[in-house]
Design brief:
This protein is mostly helical and 311 residues long. It contains 15 helices and two strands.
Length: 311
């Protein structure tokens, strides 16, 4: 039996080309502008033909370079410290979110208790709340309610060991930012992992219990290996959200805990905008998520197509 291959409409390929251009175009433009001087970027006449320079990257990485750039009198950007802060906050918040989220999802799927459906629906509804709504209440709580007084034994010991004045609060600390990121991303992780845990056959868990496995052994040795695609997909999206988040971090961080997105925005002032340095810092900010996504692209595809109806 011969099969006739149906020709695709040319408009389909045109639409794909437009979507690819819209996705890759800004990245290519940012990459090209990161090697231009500000005068070339502002004039807009050089296009893609210009004399490249690494001055923007030298200024962005001036605090971690092994040499002192000749064109810089003072290193105002602290990209190295901000990058470490972003890495610490994104990785720890991702790990904590996955650990808590996979256990909560397993409990919602496997255990029967009063209000289970309400809790499951509430997690999805909480994820719909915009982060901007949480800004004012979280800032007030982190600065007033969840503080250790400087006159207390613990507060005095922390101040003696790490310095500083006043009460010890969550605002301005890595812990405060990590905690709000975990709370913000946890509903999404619970929701996405529930669909993976449902697909794990109960017979495998029952067989493991018959062989003498305990509840934790069943969870860690039977369930977790089978939902690795879901864990990978949830980890990727959670990491990217924590890595790129700006609004909450700008309110909760201070000089020692600010992340790279805050560093980029702080490089803009009312009288001067260093576009080249902003583009270079943006490229450096985009490299870790891009590498992470490329390495785990197979897991992303598996996670996005999970739950599809098979004919």
């Amino acid at each position: 039996m011969s099969t006739v291959r149906q020709k695709q409409n040319p408009a389909f390929y045109a639409l794909i080309a437009v979507l690819v251009f819209m996705s890759i175009g800004p990245v290519v433009l940012m990459f090209a502008n990161s090697f231009k001087l500000d005068v070339d970027i502002i004039s807009g006449t050089s296009g893609m033909i210009f004399l490249p320079t690494i001055r923007n990257y030298e200024q962005a990485l001036c605090d971690v370079l092994w040499y002192e750039p000749d064109h810089l009198d003072f290193c105002s950007l602290k990209f190295g410290g901000a990058f470490i802060n972003s890495l610490i906050i994104a990785l720890i918040s991702t790990v904590l979110t996955l650990v808590i989220g996979c256990m909560a999802a397993y409990a919602l799927v496997r255990f029967r208790f009063m209000g289970r459906d309400t809790v499951s629906l509430s997690t999805l509804m909480v994820r719909m709340v915009p982060p901007a709504v949480l800004l004012v209440p979280v800032f007030g709580l982190w600065n007033n309610e969840f503080c250790i007084g400087k006159t207390t034994l613990v507060g005095g010991w922390i101040r003696d060991m790490f310095g500083g004045r006043g009460d010890v609060c969550l605002a301005g600390t890595h812990s405060g930012i990590i905690l709000i990121y975990v709370a913000m991303n946890l509903p999404f992780v619970i929701w996405i992992l529930q669909s993976f845990i449902v697909q794990v056959p109960r017979s495998l868990e029952e067989a493991a219990r018959v062989d003498g496995a305990g509840p934790f052994q069943v969870f860690f040795k039977i369930v977790l290996p089978l939902i690795k695609p879901g864990l990978a997909a949830a980890a990727i999206f959670t990491f990217r959200i924590a890595w790129n988040e700006y609004l909450l971090a700008s309110a909760l961080s201070d000089r020692d805990t600010k992340t790279v997105p805050i560093l980029i925005v702080n490089n803009m002032s009312e009288f001067n905008v260093e576009w080249g340095v902003i583009m270079a810092t943006g490229m450096l900010l985009a490299i870790p998520p891009i590498i992470f996504t490329l390495l785990a692209s197979r897991q992303i595809i598996t996670g996005m197509t999970a739950g599809a109806v098979k004919g």
